[in-house]
Queue: 2 jobs
Job 1
Amino acid sequence: MFNSLSDRLDKIFRGLKGSGYLTEKNIKDSMREIRLALLEADVNFKIVKNFINAVETRALGSDVMKSLTPGQQIVKIVHEQLIALMDTEGFEMKVYNNKLTKIMLVGLQGSGKTTACAKLAAMYRKKGIKPMMVACDVYRPAAIEQLKVLGKQIDIPVVAEDTKDVVKIAEIALKRAYEDFTNLLIFDTAGRLHIDTEMMDEVARLKAFIKPDYIFFVADAMTGQDAVTVASEFYAKLAFDAVILTKLDGDARGGAALSIKAVTDRPVAFVGTGEKIPDLEVFYPDRMASRILGMGDVLSLIEKAEETMDIEEEEKLARKMLKNQFTLNDFLQQLQSIKKMGPLESVIRMIPGMSAKLPSDLKIDDNALRHVEAIIQSMTYQEREKPHLLNGSRRLRISKGCGRPVMEVNRLMRQFEDMKKMMKKMSSPKGMKQLESMMKDQQ
Ligand SMILES: Nc1nc2c(ncn2[C@@H]2O[C@H](COP(=O)(O)OP(=O)(O)OP(=O)(O)O)[C@@H](O)[C@H]2O)c(=O)[nH]1
Ligand SMILES: [Mg+2]
């Protein structure tokens, strides 16, 4: 997501930083380029206009022109304006473990409502909340089945009734929720191809009966400005509280994420970044702005790591690395914990400075990781601890065992040796100094 916008902005800023001092002309030129970049990312044209006006006014201010680092000042201004554009005004879905919070998900067909129900349920359960889901999409039997399957997969109860009367279902669900001391009741509703009165009436009836604490409008980011238009129509008819923007992992150019708040005045609360249950993130405008500007998103990366990794184990591994005792068994363990964090490409792009360095069309093949894993798994424990045992015939056996060519086995061994050499270098005091200066270069 945002790759091409990030690349374009990066080029513009590099030009600005390179020129040393700024004139009114090169500010105006770069504003024109930023404007084009935003329009190309499918940001609403009115928003682009306001955005550029705000940035330009601030950039032409005497403080910026006179500063020693005018290029960086402009990046800072764009960063701040992006944050303002996506401002959530502190919106947060508050759920408590001693009372019931009711939420409703609405939106067009296929926008990702049912998936988001399960993702939210799983996310909040991790925080010690007891969720329950309710199937109120009564028109398609497959829709009810889909929620049931998801519920089973994550072991969260689903209320599904054999009736078309959504209010009746809600009544049963509320009763069950109170009986089971549920803290979060999530209502999945039917999507339509477009907004029609029948659908709005049903959702409105359901809303009046449930009296939800939050209504979320689920929008597919891939549909760009259409998502924004539908969101504002929806908002006019059914005042929702916030937006869940899905499919930000796809080809979405980012326009929807950048426009929704300004157009509907409702913030984005969560973003969906994949089809799997853990692929849901709380939306933070500052982190998103940093990602767009290729500054990386260290906080999200750390959170992801903390959620999926065993910190104690990681520390043990780090100590082994420093002592140069890192073996293929450790390497395998680390590969497996990295895999848990999600697709490699999205992980790498959150590292500051990395996004701009990677070509936007770069596709990191997660299969490569799987192959490496398969190769190591075909070795005996002994071999993983003492790689020098791996002679030609053992390598051949491993290659047959994992179904990868011997060449790949050899390459992996070479890379592992190189990695160990690098670790050895880094663990010396001189190496640490080098690492420090590398990090400084990044900033
Ligand atoms: N890549 C990606 N796919 C998603 C995401 N969220 C949902 N999907 C996929 O989008 C498709 C539609 O998702 P659903 O959750 O069934 O959408 P819905 O809004 O419930 O659809 P209806 O019930 O038909 O209105 C499914 O194939 C999901 O796997 C996301 O964040 N990223
Ligand atoms: Mg659905």
Job 2
Amino acid sequence: MKLRGHHLLCVLGFKGMGYSQSFIDNMAEVVAQLRDSHDPSIEIVDGPDDICLAAPGRVGDSCGHSGRLDSEARVRDHDLRVLKWLGVASGTLVEWSRVKKMVAERMKPSDLALTCPSCPWRPLGVCAEGIEAVRNDI
Ligand code: SF4
């Protein structure tokens, strides 16, 4: 499975919300694979990943937030911020259990204000709940 940096966090608190029904269905499938497979390997990628595949407006190597390359550049900055926080680089192949351990050891729910400052989903609180759940699990 390919995931970009910030999506390592998004999948933890996913509660069925997203940009379109096809995006939601695809993300639910990714989250189900992470939950139900035996410790799947994640390839951390720079750019559109298995979740972005169904993003509305996606054009080539640009994510679907607006279909514009400058939007993709902003999302890559977001990825880098999250990866730096977790201490892992893009291009790395890592087991899902290791990702959860990194999040549990290095993040508190309140850190989302720094890793994801402008995300419209953050105020809903589901991502903070996802981080908290991982911290309680490890
Ligand atoms: S705040 Fe936004 S970018 Fe950050 S984990 Fe949640 S949904 Fe993903």
